[in-house]
Amino acid sequence: MTGVTRSRIPALLAGLNGPQTLGNSRLFWVLWLAGVAAFALLPCVASRYQVLTASNFFISAILALSLCLIWGFAGILSLGQAAFFGVGGYAYGIVGINLIEATGESGAALVVGALAPALLAAAVGALMFYSRLKGVYVAILMLVVSLLLGLFMRQTADPAYAIGGAYLGGMNGLGPATASDPSIPNLTLGFGELVAEFDGRGRSFYWLALGALVAVYLGLRWLVNSSFGYLLVAVREDERRTETFGYDVRLIQLGAFCISAALAGLAGALYTAWGTYIHPDGFSVGPNILVVIWVAVGGRKDLTSVVVATLSLSWISIELATWGEISLLVLGVILVAAMLVAPEGVFATLGAWFGRLMVRSRRRPAPPPTAAAKLGAAR
Amino acid sequence: MEWSGQVFSWIYQYFDNMAFLLLAASGLILIYGMMGVINMAHGELMMIGAYVASAAFYVGAPAPVAIVAAGLVAGLVGIAMERLVIRHFYNQLLSSLVVTWGLSLILSQGVLLALGPSTMNMPTPFGSFSVGGFSFGVYRMVLFATAIGLIAGVWALFRFSSFGVAARAAMENPRMASALGVDTKRVYTATFAIGSALGGIAGALFAQTAAISPFFGQNYTPMAFITVVMGGGASAILGLVYAALYLAGVQTIASNVFNQYVGYVSIMAAAFIGLLVMPSGISDFVQKRRARRMAR
């Protein structure tokens, strides 16, 4: 990008643009703003059910972004990303049930929902990265962690599995321990009298989820284009070389892993708040593979592609549901086909192609470079 | 004699757990050790084997025929998978992991659509015997013997047959092997088919102890993966045996002292601790130590 175009872009966006992300042009940001505005206005035209479903899509997109960060940028594939999602969801529910009547808000529960999986990631990640486990092994061990958590949650039907007023509930899902305890609260933010309740079925929650997605997206764009982002990519491309330059690869991997877990946990907490419901099946193979499909089909190395893929694939799944239980089968076929045809992801490939097309069309009016100019450029 | 039954029960469980890990992981570790691909669809190949075996059994085929049929069908499915998809993902570990996971989703969901979620059952043959007041199924011991037999057979195939020599050459140095006239593509397909057939046979054997459903494979894959990871890639077959010896021991102790769930978790914990000491698996560790001793 030349100096002229860069100066046109508002300084605000400078930190968000860079070689680690597709879509750095003014046109991209105009389209992006239009897209966000369209989503923000959607509740004015869409039905209640569509708003409810779309809220969940935004939560899914946050989860997909969390995997995109570690897989696409740091080169750490986790097949058990739903483990962090589920832990965040359970943490939100447990803290929310215990605190909602005392404090009248569940913002603290949301924070714990992000922190608890980050702690789990720190513990498991420290073991894995500091023993320099191979990437495939990390991927599989994370899936096993997720399945074991699910197995554990399944057998918590015994009333002894109560944490304060929250009862883990086995296959019935998380709930209150006794009739006098509150159920999983709606997301309620604020202090004292100044609280706002976001009912998962309402428009307010929709806007909140959209806002969270936009915040996570912009935050990650800033992160991956910062010097830490360059480090992540360096680790992905060549661990040994990065180490030779004096960086602690294990620490970088652990850091990215914890951030990713916190984001997945945030998504999980929002999910629990959305449906006021969390169930051991959240840890099973299905949710774990869905995240991988969204990220792989979108393009693991680009945040925008992952969000677009998550939203469109989630929408396709819902549409397919009317045809019977074929949505997972179709998603499996889409995944395998995408991996064969566009290994870097369908949306990322399309995006890169579109970007090249735009650059070429902009250059067309210019006269073809002379041999002398070519020589000059080469020098 | 109460205590003799107790002691025998522990030994019996140890062998049972070992048979479980050996059978579930044998095909998987062959494919991983020889080709560097971890086949996430391995559990689904076992599921296909289980369905084929039970279908053959209810048609009236004797059990050995049903098991062989299961191995054949799973091997054919494996060939199709390798030819159509997996071929394009050699030397891309993470991508092959994801694409085979996609295949597993297609297979399990496809079978779910075709056959429905209801489970099938096969009777467990051979009856039982009792020691010190405890009753034990004979079939579990037959499983163990079969597992050892299968693994020894695979080892011998790759160690002594001309196919085995060609396969090992193709894995070690594909370009040199093909320069010497080995059709490496064919060797890859054949190895994958053998691994898949082992999965199908394992599925058919487990079908006689567990309910068969489209998600049959998911019960076996996590433990099979841990065994493969623990075994390491240096010497696939030996690694498998080491890993099964170690993990089954931990599981037997933990599930007897605590409960079944702790037994499962202990496998995971044991694998974690093992990998802290030996980051690329037991067989790599043993090989390196041997090399060091030789150097001295």
TrEMBL record, chain A:
It is found in: Cell membrane. The chain crosses the membrane at residues 27-45, 57-76, 82-100, 107-130, 136-153, 205-233, 254-271, 277-296, 303-323, 329-354. GO terms for cellular component: plasma membrane. Keywords: Cell membrane, Membrane, Transmembrane, Transmembrane helix. It comes from the Bacteria. GO terms for molecular function: branched-chain amino acid transmembrane transporter activity. InterPro entries: ABC_transp_permease, LivM-like. This is Branched-chain amino acid ABC transporter permease. It comes from Methylopila capsulata.
From TrEMBL, chain B:
Keywords: Amino-acid transport, Cell membrane, Membrane, Transmembrane, Transmembrane helix, Transport. Belongs to the binding-protein-dependent transport system permease family. LivHM subfamily. One of its GO terms (biological process) is amino acid transport. The chain crosses the membrane at residues 20-41, 48-81, 93-116, 137-158, 187-212, 224-249, 261-286. This is Branched-chain amino acid transport system permease protein. One of its GO terms (cellular component) is plasma membrane. It is a multi-pass membrane protein. Pfam families: BPD_transp_2 (PF02653). GO terms for molecular function: transmembrane transporter activity. InterPro entries: ABC_transp_permease (IPR001851), BCAA_transport_permease (IPR052157). CDD domains: TM_PBP1_LivH_like. It is found in: Cell membrane.
